[in-house]
Amino acid sequence: MLLETINLCKDYSKGKGKLAVYDASIHIGMSETVGLFGESGSGKSTLGLMIAGLVSPTSGEILYNGRPVRGRYRGEVRRDIQILFQHPETSFNPMLPLIKSMTEPYHLYKIPYTKEILLEMLKGYGLYEEHLYRKPAQLSGGELQRAALARIMIIKPRLIILDEPTSMLDVITQAQMIGMLRKNQELNKTAYLFIAHNRLVCDQFCSRIYHIQSGHINED
Ligand SMILES: Nc1ncnc2c1ncn2[C@@H]1O[C@H](COP(=O)(O)OP(=O)(O)OP(=O)(O)O)[C@@H](O)[C@H]1O
Ligand SMILES: [Mg+2]
Q: From the CA of 2, how far away is ligand 1's center (Å)?
């Protein structure tokens, strides 16, 4: 198993009793696409953020490749588990032209690249040189979300938490995004936890689906 959570809980209420996530036990296999579906406020992002190592669980455990992971992720785990945020602006520094953010992973992980390599990769996500010299606010929501996805794919993670990546996009852009995700999966064997409040999209894209209601999770 690539990733497992065991009785994962998150209490934002400082012990007042209402948890955002109760005893979530889920598992994600290598190169699997698992859905996490539930209405607004049901705890989807909270669970995704805990798995990504960005929110610390109140109790419970996360196992990656069978080993417990805690605190801020480092080294291999930090590279392997990535999250595509619900709001793409959160992925970028608003002051910097896109090129600065897009070249960051190459530098951070010492991956050799040229401008041609970067442009060729971006083309696969429907982005071109002109986009690179704009600031995040000068791109559309769809372009920015695709840039955020492209930036994650550069480092070839093993698992990507996709937090409602298509909820703000129109139907055509949504279908394009799903196509890009499928293509990447064939190529790199990436596993996905696909978060959505739309059951239909989950059904089309995922091989297994968890349903979360007021923080309680069940496999459908
Ligand atoms: N940092 C936080 N501090 C306090 N409460 C929070 C925090 N983040 C989320 N919550 C609360 O936890 C609950 C679950 O929120 P979460 O963001 O996980 O829901 P969601 O399923 O992702 O919803 P949406 O579909 O609207 O994105 C909500 O009641 C929310 O108000
Ligand atoms: Mg959310």
A: 26
Element (H, E) at 20: none
Structure tokens at 184: 């990447």
Which ligand sits closest to the CA of 37? 1
pLDDT at 127: 96
- Going by alpha carbons, the residue nearest to atom 2 of ligand 1 is 12
- CATH architecture of the region 36-53+72-209: 3-Layer(aba) Sandwich (3.40)
With vertex at residue 33, the alpha carbon angle to CA 65 and CA 180, rounded to the nearest 5 degrees, is: 115
What is the percent of the chain where pLDDT is above 90? 85
Q: Report the run of H or E that residue 178 belongs to, with start and end.
A: helix 171-188
The CA distance from 215 to 140, in Å, is: 32
- The residue nearest atom 31 of ligand 1, judged by CA position, is 41
Listed as ranges, residues in the chain with pLDDT below 50 are none
pTM of the model: 0.95
Residue whose CA lies nearest to ligand 1 atom number 28: 41
136-148 pLDDT, tens digit per residue, is 999 998 899 999 9
